[in-house]
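INFO  loader      accepted 1 record
INFO  loader      residues=153
INFO  predictor   begin
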Amino acid sequence: MFEHRISSLAHQIKDWVDMAPLSILVTPIIYFFEKYVISDWDSFSLVMITLVGDTVLGVYKHWRRKTLNKEGLAKFVDKLMVCFFALFLSEKVASLSGDISIWEDIATGFGRASLIMYLGMSIAENLSDISNGKFPSKALLDKFKVFTEKKRD
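INFO  predictor   done
INFO  writer      dumping tokens
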């Protein structure tokens, strides 16, 4: 029993040592993101989870329709870039406010809320397409689209 524990500990130490070079490479990247890009990982993770949910629903919708193609991957990369840069901009605009915390809260809150609404609308559209307009209903989506789409003449 004691030998098993020693063996298990030796394997854990070996795994840790094996991961050390990767950790050395990743640490500066994580530091850069934490210091200069995104200081609030909770909002970043919320946006990323919502983005993953939107992506899964979109892939499922196109898989059911047999319309999966490379353009869908390009749309995912576009959406990922929009989310990343919107978070980045909201963080940087907030830092411009200086020591006035209310403006910082407004800037970051607006950025996060806009992203969640953007992704939430996409999730709702995917759900509606998957359910053939039953949930959420097309009428409800059309009411929300008044806020999200520009009127074209």
